[in-house]
Specification:
With about 140 residues, the protein is mostly beta strands. About 0% of the residues lie in helices and about 50% in strands. It is elongated and about 70 Å long.
Length: about 140
């Protein structure tokens, strides 16, 4: 089991006429939480069942250094992510692992990056995260076990 918490409270000591000291630091979430649990069970028939579950939280951030009084779209609301994986390693005592996984199981949508080009090019460019993803993994280990 693993649990991490981060608290960040950055601030500017001084401002200028064009940059107010009350601006928030870009890409600096006040709170972050990461928790994960992994567990394995040996099997009589060979190999082991492995489980992994993960949780991530990040509080609101801004993508712009100069953000005091900026429109809400230069900010990213806080979000949560849930990931999980279930697998059978060394199936039957052999060199094969198989597993199923899901990432972003709660299908959270959030911005990874946002470029405010409205004054120069007339648009706000946003790069979003990967949506809910499922998959199957099959792995073969060559050589001695």
């Amino acid at each position: 089991m693993n649990v991490n918490y981060g608290y960040l409270d950055p601030s500017y000591d001084k401002g200028t006429e064009v940059f107010n000291k009350d601006n928030e630091f870009a890409r600096a979430p006040e709170h972050t939480v990461n928790a994960s649990l992994s567990y394995s069970w040996p099997l009589v028939v060979g190999g082991e069942i492995v489980f992994y579950g993960g949780y991530t939280y990040q509080s609101e951030i801004t993508f712009s250094d100069s953000n005091l009084g900026a429109p809400d779209d230069v900010f990213q609301d806080g979000y949560e992510l849930i990931d999980a994986r279930l697998g059978w390693n060394n199936v039957g005592g052999g060199p094969v692992d198989i597993g199923i996984y899901g990432k972003n199981l709660n299908d959270e949508t959030y911005a990874l990056d946002r470029q405010d080009n409205r004054n120069f090019l007339g648009f706000l460019g946003t790069h979003y995260n990967v949506p809910r993803t499922y998959g199957i993994e099959l792995r073969y280990s060559f050589g001695e076990q």
